């Protein structure tokens, strides 16, 4: 393409002064204010394969959500998503991670959040997603919500040097959560020092590998509470907890409910 003719863009209009630009800004603002919410820019993301979006207010309530998110949670009408929070649609152990990152953006402690995180696909299976969140401000500069885009992590991204150790560690923890897991042995298997693995894990997921393991076990316990009639002791044994007491303590700390209360609520 080196021999192809090159087009040099040229602005034919004369330079506008401040007064004219201020007038045009007002016209633009009035034009935006008159648009129907369904005609705003966020809908473009529904046309980009593999990318979806979400918008939340200061209280963490969904104001907009992309088609892929609606499909993931079996919601047919976008209005049914309006006002829901992450805790309304996602297990507590997963939702808390989302809310923690949201809080950093909404309080102004982070100008943006870029994170590799666990989420559910349309089949209800945990998968890796790359998420970016930015604050939304009113005309006075106050943060009134946040907007974000999400896409499934590509295989080549998971193989990048910065992600290899973390991805391998997370895969091992998800596979071996029912067994006794030594964090030192895990770090060694991933070719990292324990301190380095913990630092990289925190940067990628916002939690330590120890907390990731506990949350993985809690999610597995949730599934068994939903799908089986196993006792607390049996579930504890299958999910890697020391005993039923340990299951109850860690489960309640991360879900707000005891295992029995969680099972009863879901049976109603």
Detailed description of the structure:
The chain is of the alpha+beta class and 268 residues long. The chain has two domains: 21-153, PAS domain (Beta-Lactamase), CATH 3.30.450; 156-267, Homeodomain-like (Arc Repressor Mutant, subunit A, Orthogonal Bundle). Helix content is 50%, strand content 15%. It has helices at 18-34, 67-72, 78-81, 86-89, 92-106, 155-158, 161-176, 183-189, 194-205, 209-227, 232-239, 244-255, 259-267; strands at residues 51-57, 62-65, 113-120, 126-137, 143-152. A five-stranded antiparallel β-sheet has the order 2-1-5-4-3. A hairpin with a 5-residue loop joins strand 4 (126-137) and strand 5. Helix 10 packs across helix 13 (259-267) and helix 11 crosses helix 12. The model has no long low-confidence stretch (mean pLDDT 86).
């Amino acid at each position: 393409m080196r021999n192809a003719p090159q087009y040099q863009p040229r602005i034919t209009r004369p330079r506008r002064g401040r007064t004219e630009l201020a007038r045009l800004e007002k016209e633009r603002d009035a034009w935006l204010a008159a648009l129907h919410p369904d005609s705003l820019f966020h809908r473009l993301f529904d046309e980009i394969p593999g990318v979806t979006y979400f918008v939340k207010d200061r209280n963490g309530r969904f104001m907009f959500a992309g088609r892929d998110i609606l499909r993931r949670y079996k919601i047919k009408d976008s209005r049914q998503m309006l006002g829901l929070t992450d805790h309304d649609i996602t297990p507590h152990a997963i939702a808390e991670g989302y809310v923690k990152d949201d809080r950093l953006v909404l309080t102004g402690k982070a100008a943006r959040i870029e994170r590799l995180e666990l989420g559910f696909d349309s089949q209800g299976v945990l998968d890796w997603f790359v998420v970016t969140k930015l604050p939304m401000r009113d005309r006075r500069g106050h943060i009134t919500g946040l907007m974000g885009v999400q896409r499934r992590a590509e295989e080549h991204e998971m193989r990048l040097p910065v992600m290899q150790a973390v991805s391998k560690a997370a895969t091992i923890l998800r596979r071996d959560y029912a067994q006794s897991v030594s964090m030192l042995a895990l770090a060694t298997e991933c070719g990292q020092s324990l301190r380095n693995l913990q630092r990289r894990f925190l940067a990628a997921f916002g939690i330590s590998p120890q907390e990731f393991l506990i949350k993985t076990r809690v999610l597995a316990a949730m599934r068994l509470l939903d799908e089986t009639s196993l006792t607390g002791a049996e579930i504890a044994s299958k999910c890697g907890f020391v005993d039923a007491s340990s299951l109850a303590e860690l489960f309640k700390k991360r879900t707000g409910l005891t295992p029995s209360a969680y099972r009863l609520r879901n049976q109603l």
